[in-house]
Structure formats: C-alpha cells, structure tokens
From TrEMBL, chain B:
The keyword Metal-binding applies. One of its GO terms (molecular function) is oxidoreductase activity. The keyword Iron-sulfur applies. Residues 4-35, 56-87, 89-118 form the 4Fe-4S ferredoxin-type domain. PANTHER family: PROTEIN NRFC, PROTEIN NRFC HOMOLOG. CDD domains: PsrB (cd10551). This is 4Fe-4S dicluster domain-containing protein.
Length: 850, 190
C-alpha cells in the first residue's frame, strides 16, 4: 500500500511542481551590478503571466523568437521558457527560414548540461591530459594577453590564427583587426568550399546561401552528394509544401529523405563528377537543352582558341577590347562580339586569322563541353560510378523534361573532387535554362546587411578600417590584418583551408603560427587527419578554446573560456537560407545557469585585445569600463545591434523602431520578396562576361581546367576484399553540440554501416565489433560496432560525422555514450586540392573483424 | 464534441526526429537527468517509438498511441483508469485510479505504452503538455515542430479539418486493422 501511495505522490510531482522548482533555481540567479535594466526587460517578457496555464492546471511556456544555434544553420525558432529555463522550441510560422529539427528540439539539454563550460579554466598538466583548474576571468585574460604579446613580439601579428564557425562569423571579422592578423580560417575546406568556388566560376557568386533551388516551385530536384535532411529545415519545409516535387538523391548511402518519397541512387563514392558529366552528355546528345537560353544568357557560343583562351576583339584588331568575347553570328555568317550577335551559334568550328596574320583554330565553348561530356557516355560513366547506364539516361531525360533543378551544394560529399561535380551540376542547370526561373536555381535577393568592418579609402589616400558602429582603425594600426591569409598563400582560391594553418604551425610553412583561438568550433571533429590537428595543437605556444561544451579540442587548450549559448544573448543577422531579402533578430531568452559565468566570445576577444594591444581595442571603440560584463551587455552589445538595425533601416527606408518592434515580436522581417528572372536577364552576373559561364573564364585565369572532368578522389581506391570506402555525413540530429546531448544517446547512430552482401561475404553479423585502418594514414585505426543495413551501397562503409569516437578526457572519464563509434576525421588523408584547397573527410580503410 | 485523430505521412518524413525529442522535452522534462529515461523502450522518455527496418527496402516508422475506438488497453484496465475521453475521442489515463498493474501496457497491440521509471506508471500519447496545448486550441508538439509537413492532428468528424481532407484525398492505412481496434492514427506509406 505504501508503495502505491509513494507512486501516487510521485505522479503528483507534476509538471507544475517541476516548474516551481525551476523557478526557485532561477530566482537564485545572481544579478550582476549594472545589469538590472537588462534583467528587468527580460523579466517583462518572461514572467509567469506570459506563460499560459490551462484549465487542467498545466503551464505552457512563453515563446521568444531566436536564431537557432544548435548548428550553424540559424533557423527561426521560438524557444519556450518557463521561469527562466528553456523547455523546448517550436518553429516560427511565416519565417523565411523556419526550424526545426532534432538538434533544435534537444536544446533544453544544453542549458545546464554537465559538459557545459562554466568558468574560465587553465591547463595544469600536459596538453592532452585534460587537467585544468578554475581561474578567474581576470587571471585568464591577463595571462592570455601577456602570452600573446610575447608571441607577437617574436613572430609578428600574423603568427596568431583564429578558427571559428558561422554561428559567430559576423562578429569574427573584427577579431582579425583586434589582433592584427589576417589568419581567421574557417571550416570551409571540409564544407562548402568546392561548391563555392564552382559557383563563383559559373555564376559569379560564391557563398552557398546566395543561390539555392526554388524548392517550393520546383518540379524535379536532383541532389548529388547532398541531402535535404542534413540541416536547414526551411528548405525541407518548402520542398514538402510542394506536392508535385520529385526528388532524386545520388549518394553511396541512403539519406533519411529516402525513408520518404525521394528516389535513392546508390553511387560509388567520389565518382559524382563522372555521373554529372554523363547527365550532361545525354542532355546534349539527345538535344534536350534550352538553346535559346544558352545562346543568350551563357557563354556557350564563345569561341575558344586552341590554348583554351577565349577569342576576343583584341585578338582580331588593334585597339580591340580584350573583354569583348567573339562568337559566330549565324544570321550574318560572320564573327561578332557576343553582345552584338543576333544569332550566336552554339556549334561552330573554324580557323581564324588573328591581327598579326597568324591563324588559330577556334570552336565554341558549347562544342568543347560537348566533346568533354562525350568521354562520359552512360556506358562509360557506369563503369566509373557503378550506376546503371539506363538509370543515368532516365535521370538525364527526366531532369530535362521536368525542367529540373540540381542543388548547387554545400556540405557535399566529401571526396576532395567535388569542385568538378558542382561545376557540372551548375552547367546542367544552365543547359535546361533553369537559372533564376520559377522552380529553378535562384539567386537570393541581397539584404545589403552591413559588414562588421569595412576597409575604406580616406580622402588623403589612406586605408582605414571602419566598423558598423562608427569606430575607425587608422592605417598604421592595421598590422598584418589586411594581408593574405596563410591558407590563401597556399591555395589561391580558398575561402578557408585550416590544413594550411596546421602546416604553418608544424613546419613554419610559409611562416610560423604560434597562437590559436578556437571559437565555437572543433577542428578535431571537422577537419582532415585529426591526428595532425592534435600534433599542431601540441606545438603551439598558446591555445585558447572558447565554446559552450567541453569538446575534444578542449583537452589541448591552455585556457578554456566559456561562451554563452545563442538563447543567452541577442543577435541580429540576415536570414541565410531564403531567396527573399530578410533579417532576423534572436532575442535573449534566458540568463545562463546560476553556477556559471559564461561571456560572449565577442567580449572575451575585446578584453584580451584590451590587455595585449590596448590601442587596437580602443581604436575599435572599446572602453575600459566594458571589462565589467554587465556594462558591455548594457551598452556596447546593444550599440552594435542598433548600428546594424540603423544601417538596414536606412538602406530600405524603413523606420528603425518599426523594424525593431517587428523583429522583436516576430523574430524576422522580410525586406524584399524574391523577384524571379532577375539575373542574368535584367542585370549581369559577377562572372567576367556577366553571363552564366558554362566555360568559366575565371577558372581558366586561376589555372584550372574550365570544363568539369572526373579525377579520382584524393584517397586510395579500395581494391582488396577487406578494403572499403568509408563515407560520412550528418543526419538532422547531428551537430558537434547536439550529438553529445542526451537525445543523441538514444536516437543517434554510432555504428559503422555495412551492406548485407559484404557482411555475408566476410562473415560479419549485426553488432560485431570491427577495426578499420586507414589505407593512407598507416597505423590510424578505430573500432566500432557494425550495423548491417541496405542503407549503404556494397563496398562502402558509412558512419556519422561529428557523432561518435569522441576522445575528450572528460567524456572518456564519464564513459560518455559519444566515445563509442568512430570519428572519421582521424582516418581522412590531409590532402587538399591544389589551387582550391577543398579536402576530403571520406577515406578508404582495411576492415578486420575483432 | 470532437473526435481527434492523427495522421503520419511516412512519404514526407525526413526522420529528423524533432517530434520524438520535442515530445520528450515538453512532456517529460523531469526525466532529463535520468540515465535511461524510458527503459521499457530503451530510449528517451517520449511517447513516440522509432521503428526502424534495415533489411529489404529500409523503412522507418514513428509510432505512438493509435487512439483506438475499441482500445484493448481500456478493455483490460481493472480499475477504469484507462478510458476514452468522450469529449475528445482520445485514449487517456486517470492516474488517480491507476494501480500500475501494466495490463494496458501488455494489452496494447502497438507497443505504444511505456512504463515511467520514476512514477512506475504507464505513459502514453498525449502527454500533459500536449493535452494542454490541445485544450488551448493548438497542435500537439509533434505536429507543431514537424518541418516536413509529415504530421496532422485534428477532428475526424469535421470534414473540413486538414486531417479529414487529407484522409479523403490520399491513400492511407491503419495498423493491424484486422484486430478490430479501429485506430484513429492514419498512415501515408512512404
């Protein structure tokens, strides 16, 4: 009987009681001096009265709009809060990029997680042992600054490097000026780099958010090496609201999307370029392309000389323009500059006499593409890709007939050769004329969102750095900040190749890097060859790790500094993943837990600079009084946001208060709806010709083959019966943060997937332990359980990225669930593509049953 | 009087599991620190069970209480704790009457009930927070958070409700119909 009473008592400990307990905890929050105004304004929106208690007595949370920071996506979600504690989230309806996924749903777990970094810590043992002692902010910042000064006096400003993730990239541009170094190098090489370079080549815009399929209006969506289920649920929402959309996914493993109605075409890893070239081959040979679009809006009719360069007016006559590209006009049967021809021929080949009397053979870019693609007939491509020739033909025909759109990719398949695949995909979109068309590949409307720092010329000819909030750093103080980054010296087109930073650390190549700030990111779970990352960490004179949770990289830090979570601060950004021009405001939802003292990375970096290089911090508008964090929260942080709001309001002619109040209540503001058929129809693209370049002249100028081609992936191709490709990707539950939170323990996968045919061949059963050893990095091994599944192609093993195989000392000591499985980055060869700098985190391995 | 039902569109689901996690955070936040919050299913404290089939054509079904019209869990309950709420049509538990005998957990042909390790009592969809949302005229959490439009909830007796329109216009199935349980949980197969 007493047991039953006890049970009844426990059931009575309902949601309301839980909430009251949480309220008590929240009430005990220490309020920093000077922060009262802020707390009051928070209280206004977070009191019990704003929550709802229904007749049954259950209290429902109040919802406050934020930009989700559970991955780098920045989706619009409303965080539910009851008495100062986050309790869940719902999507923001009507938001141009609404959430949410399993990561965002997991956010209550991050708030007071045992792995949460609470106070600054200083290393006491050797790097890698993970022994730290808690220190004051004052001590940590003073010591870091002293060390920085010492390093800069020996090696110069550029010996400092910063690596970071998108979550705070807007602010990060100022860090280079604060510390005088150019070397802020992101995760790009193992994410969107290949796609961004290809996009810049073909369409004249780089970042992955600037061009995207028009999901809500498309008829046919081709995803090669991509899966809609990786992140950005707004894309999913738009695709799923479109009942006529057919989706085809080409991937060595079945993405989550194919549990639903997406057709999955299993392909041999690293052969995407051959598959795409074969689609191009079929579209051209079967005449399924849009000739009018190609003639008018692309450089397909450009005449190309034998040396690969375009024939220009300057080749033909003295004083001719080197940017007037020549075509053959079928109407006049003569050569003409491309912008003068009435009917530029797509197919033409001739010998042309140049102004010096010499002759040269020329043919159209379209013809060159046709010849290149002819090397990849469906039967030839099938031998490379493992995809049936009839399937290739069918997909090509469907793509053309449905007026399809191919995703231009980010976080693509990771074989190091995606540049050619994406270039081919962009060309494929152009072939069917589906650029900036309804249901096509569309350009994002520009928000004109202000840059944090802009380099401007003064009337006296000097270059100064101006911040959005009005501070100016004079030319003589810029230090090395305006030089090329260390990775750009090695890979001239890269937007960020961290491997080059590692080379600078390990080999002083091209110069020494001695200090590293790791902000909101985890290179060990992000880059190629994680052992090399660790080796580099060990050689540095100073490693500072700024984050929310204790991750693998923290073990190698000299100082660990706790950052705030997105819902503990206010942020104002442009909406990334939408074709509309839109901005979004993330409001402060909760105070950090009472036993913690996290500070925004922005404040932390300014305070380090104020101690190390005070003149730099002051020049960028910092004051001594901001060392009081509450003063910063009360004055400086709102000033930065207000200046961004002012810039946006001025640009669009909107009343700032109106903009602000809309943002506060809705979380977003759409500045301009997508207007189709804009580029290249009404205005030029950023390519050299202003047209879509199926034969990219900028690629040619950079020393790259302008046409796509298939080169094998950078890792060794598996040949023997016990050798496999090892591919990885994310699921909608995966981010470095989300995969160490409790839901991932039960809902994520830390196994190695194997096809049943391979399993039968090797006598492996579901749940067996296997060892995989890198074919390219001798001695690098990892162990995991096998899951036998038809979700992976024969000859291929698959594992999640950023999920298992964690080695952080704290996680190991806790026997944390994330220590099971493998981190594929340890097995991946550090071999970025020359010129471009894109790398592979897929690899090949030898498998042994344990 | 309404007769609520659910629809799960497997063909649209991207298996992001937002619904599974949101059910847990909102209905069972007092289980967040438990080692195995739902030992009965070996997963989170959530009313949605992930059923994964890896062989053949891989499939994943997200399964929760089928809100049966003729519910075996109600029929076997010795105290009348499990009942069908006549004003909503939802299968509910009156914990003042529940003695924790678990007959309902065993009787459910869908394995849609689990035993709360803290309270040692059966749990099922909907949780308290979801019921409160519905009381307020909002969608339960699993429906509200879904980014893929894969879930619907509404009045099956209202021909103009989204769910009724979808059922009328799409081929749907119900699980184990042969048992005569008359589930109010409709599935669009992927």
């Amino acid at each position: 009987m007493s047991l039953l009473v006890d049970r009844l008592e426990r059931i009575k400990m309902t949601r309301r009681d839980f909430i009251k307990t949480a309220a008590f905890t929240a009430a005990a929050l220490s309020i920093p001096t000077g922060g009262l105004k802020l707390i009051e304004s928070l209280a206004e929106t977070q009191t019990e009265s704003k929550t709802t208690t229904v007749a049954s007595g259950v209290t429902l949370p109040q919802y406050i709009p934020t930009n989700c920071g559970m991955c780098g996506g920045g989706c619009g979600i409303k965080v539910g809060v009851i008495n100062g504690r986050p309790v869940g989230a719902v999507p923001i309806e009507g938001h141009p990029q609404p959430g949410l996924c399993g990561r965002a749903a997991s956010l209550p777990w991050i708030y007071d997680n045992p792995l949460r970094l609470k106070k600054p810590m200083k290393r006491v043992g050797e790097r890698g042992e993970g022994n730290f002692q808690e220190v004051s902010w004052e001590q940590a910042l003073n010591e870091i600054a002293a060390k920085l000064k010492e390093i800069v006096s020996k090696y110069g400003y550029k010996s400092i490097a910063i690596t970071y993730h998108d979550v705070c990239s807007y602010e990060t541009s100022i860090f280079t000026y604060l510390l005088g170094t150019p070397n802020a190098v992101q995760h790009v090489s193992t994410c969107h780099l290949a796609g961004s370079i290809a996009r810049a080549n073909v369409l004249g815009v780089a970042g992955p958010t600037l061009v995207d399929p028009d999901y809500e209006n498309a008829s046919y969506l081709l995803l090669v090496g991509r899966s809609l289920s990786t992140g950005i649920m707004g894309q999913v929402k738009r695709a799923r609201s479109n009942s006529k959309l057919r989706i085809v996914v080409v991937d060595p493993r079945m993405p989550e999307l194919s549990f639903g109605n997406a057709e999955w075409i299993p392909i041999i890893p690293g052969t995407d370029p051959a598959f795409v070239l074969s689609l191009i081959n079929v579209v051209i040979e079967e005449g399924l392309y849009d000739s009018r679009f190609l003639q008018k809006y692309t450089n397909a009719p450009f005449l190309i000389k034998q040396d690969g360069k375009p024939l220009t007016e300057a080749d033909l006559k003295d004083g001719g323009s080197p940017t007037l590209y020549m075509v053959y006009d079928s109407l006049t049967s003569s050569l003409a500059p491309y912008n003068k021809a009435s009917q530029p021929a797509l197919s033409y080949e001739a010998t042309v006499t140049l102004k010096d009397g010499s002759t040269v053979n020329v043919k159209t870019a379209f013809q060159m593409l046709r010849e290149r693609a002819s090397q990849y007939s469906p039967s030839d491509a099938s031998k490379i890709t493992g995809v049936d020739p009839d399937t290739i033909r069918r997909i090509a025909r469907e793509f053309a007939l449905y007026h399809g759109v191919a995703d231009d990719t980010w976080y693509a398949a990771k074989n190091g050769n995606e540049y050619d695949a994406v270039k081919g995909l962009l060309i494929l979109n152009a072939l069917v004329g589906n650029i900036d068309a309804i249901g096509g590949l569309v350009f994002q409307e520009a928000t004109g969102f202000p840059s944090m720092v802009t380099l401007v010329q003064t009337p006296d000819g000097k270059t100064v750095a101006k911040t959005v909030y009005g501070a100016t750093m004079p030319q003589e103080m810029l230090g090395d900040a305006t030089q090329k980054r260390v990775d750009q010296l090695k890979y001239k087109l890269t937007l960020g190749t961290f491997d080059a930073v590692l080379d600078a650390i390990l080999k002083d190549d091209p110069y020494p890097i001695r200090a590293l700030f790791i902000i909101g990111t985890t290179p060990i779970l992000r880059d190629m060859n994680a052992s090399k990352v660790i080796q580099a960490y060990k050689k540095l004179d100073l490693v500072v790790f700024i984050n929310v949770l204790y991750q693998d990289d923290a073990d190698y830090a000299d100082y660990i500094l706790p950052d705030t979570i997105f819902m503990e601060r206010e942020e104002f950004i442009s909406t990334k993943w939408t074709a509309h021009a839109a901005v979004q405001l993330s409001r402060k939802v909760v105070e950090p837990p009472e036993d913690s003292d996290p500070r925004e990375a922005f404040w932390t970096m300014f305070e380090i600079a104020r101690r190390a290089f005070p003149e730099r911090a002051y020049a960028l508008g910092w004051k001594d009084e901001y060392s009081d964090y509450s003063k910063y929260e009360e004055e400086f942080a709102p000033k930065v946001i207000d200046s961004k709001l002012t810039a946006v309001a001025n640009k669009w002619g909107i009343d700032k208060d109106y903009l602000r109040s809309n943002l506060e209540s809705n979380g977003f503001f759409i500045l301009k709806k997508k207007s189709y058929y804009s580029k290249p129809y009404k205005s030029s693209l950023g390519t050299p010709s202003g047209l879509v370049e199926i034969y990219p002249l900028s690629a040619l100028a950079s020393g790259l083959d302008p046409l796509p081609k298939y080169v094998p992936p950078v890792y060794t191709i598996p040949r023997n019966p016990n050798e496999f490709y090892l591919v990885n990707s994310k699921s909608p539950m995966v981010s470095v943060t989300a995969t160490i939170l409790e839901p991932a323990k039960f809902l994520e996968d830390r196994t190695i997937w194997m096809n049943p045919i391979d399993a039968a061949r090797l006598g492996i059963r579901d749940g067996d332990l296997v060892q995989v050893e890198s074919l390219d990095l001798p001695g690098i091994k990892a162990v995991a359980e096998v899951r036998i599944t038809n979700r992976v192609r024969e000859g291929v093993l698959y594992t999640r990225a950023q999920t298992g195989g964690r080695r952080a000392s704290r996680l190991v000591a806790m026997k944390h669930f994330s220590t099971a499985g493998i981190n594929p980055d340890y097995l991946a060869k550090d071999s970025p593509l020359p010129i471009i700098g894109a790398g592979a985190t897929n690899s090949s391995v030898r498998l042994t049953k344990l | 009087m309404v007769r609520y039902g659910f629809l799960y569109d497997e063909s649209k689901c991207i298996a992001c599991l937002a619904c599974v996690v949101a059910c847990s955070t909102n209905n069972y936040e007092d289980h967040m620190s438990e080692n195995i919050p739902n030992p009965y299913w070996g997963t989170l404290a959530t009313n949605i069970r992930v059923v994964l089939k890896d062989q053949g054509r891989p499939e994943q079904l997200l399964l929760s209480c089928q809100q049966c019209e003729r519910a075996p869990c109600v029929e076997v309950c010795p105290t009348g704790a499990s009942y069908i709420n006549k004003s909503t049509g939802l299968v509910e538990i009156n914990y003042e009457k529940c003695i924790g005998c678990k007959a309902c957990v065993t009787a459910c042909p869908y394995n849609a009930r689990w035993v709360d390790p803290i309270k040692m009592l059966p749990m099922k969809c909907m949780g308290e927070a979801c019921k409160a949302r519905v009381e307020k005229g909002e969608q339960p959490f699993c429906v509200a958070v879904c980014p893929a439009e894969a879930r619907l909830f509404g009045d099956l007796d209202d021909p103009n409700s989204e769910i009724s329109k979808k059922i009328a216009s799409t081929k749907t199935t119900r699980l184990k119909e042969a048992l005569g349980t008359e589930p109010k949980f409709y599935i669009v197969r992927g």
